[in-house]
Each structure stands twice: as C-alpha cells, then as structure tokens.
Amino acid sequence: MSKYTVALVAHDHKKPDLLAWVKTHLSVMQKCDLVATGTTGSMIEEKTGLSVDCLKSGPLGGDQQIGALIAEGKLDMLFFFWDPLNAAPHDPDVKALLRLCSVWNIPVACNKATADLIVTSPLFLSDDYQAERPAL
C-alpha cells in the first residue's frame, strides 16, 4: 500500500466532529502522513496519539500553508470539516484552499459523509489509483 499525505482541518465548531471521525478511522489514518492546521493538529495528536505535522492555525496562515503543499504536489487529499453557518475572518483563505483542490484534482471532504465515502473506497491507499495532476 502506498502512503498518502492527508491534511486535516476543522473550524472551531467542527473540531469535535473531525476528532470523532479520525478516531473512527484510526487504523486508516495510521497509514497516512498527516498534516493539519495548528489547533486541529494538536488536538488530534493529543487525543489519538497519531503523529501530525502541525502547521499554523488557519487564521494565522495554516490554510495557506496547506494550499502551498497542494501547489507543490505534496498533498494527496484534504479532510476539511468547515462550518458554513459561522463566518470566519479568514473565509477568503478557505475559498482559495477549496479552489486549489479543484485546480489540482485533490479529493476534498467537507463533511463526515463524504469523508466516510473517501476512506472506505477501494481506491483509498491503493497503488492502482493515481490522480491526474496539472504539470508542475
């Protein structure tokens, strides 16, 4: 099995949901290289024991750091449990991050249902699947 680099991000009201989801899929997440925005990553490390490369918090540039990983071809997918009912001051960063996922053909899950479908797909962690990316 290949190892994917997966980003984990959650807005404040969605952090408990993402943590519960990671715990549900702990055996799968153990097979991935994990990066996360600061607060989310620290919480996941503390509550699960997983190793997470913690970037800056989202409002302080963490979303943009994840965007840079996408543009550099260093990120395979994004699990971003965002809160569409609570505006955040860094909403333009969130929109830019989601736009980069579309441009670079990065699978992105914005809720539990989509995240569940991605990690239970036979293509997840499969050496048989290679997503098409724009030329670097």
List the helices and strands and how they pair.
Blueprint: E1 5-10, H1 15-24, H2 26-29, E2 33-36, H3 38-48, E3 52-54, H4 62-71, E4 77-81, H5 91-103, E5 108-109, H6 112-119
Parallel strand pairs: 1-2, 1-4, 2-3, 4-5
Helix pairs in contact: 1-3, 4-5
Summed up, what is this model?
The protein has one domain: Methylglyoxal synthase-like domain (Rossmann fold), CATH 3.40.50. The chain is 41% helix and 15% strand. The protein has helices at 15-24, 26-29, 38-48, 62-71, 91-103, 112-119, and strands at 5-10, 33-36, 52-54, 77-81, 108-109.
SSE series: EHHEHEHEHEH
CATH architectural designation: 3-Layer(aba) Sandwich
Rough outline:
globular
The CATH class turns out to be Alpha Beta
CATH homolog superfamily? Methylglyoxal synthase-like domain
Helix fraction, binned, reads 40-55%
Rg calculated over all Cα atoms: 14 Å
CATH topology: Rossmann fold
Number of discrete helical segments:
6
Mean pLDDT: 91
- Reading side by side through the largest sheet, how are the strands ordered? 3-2-1-4-5
Number of strands: 5
Alpha-beta classification:
alpha/beta
> What share of the residues does DSSP label as strand, in percent?
5-15%
Determine the N-to-C terminus distance: 25 Å
Enzyme class: lyase
Function: Catalyzes the formation of methylglyoxal from dihydroxyacetone phosphate.
Keywords: Lyase
Binding site for substrate: 11, 15, 37-40, 57-58, 90
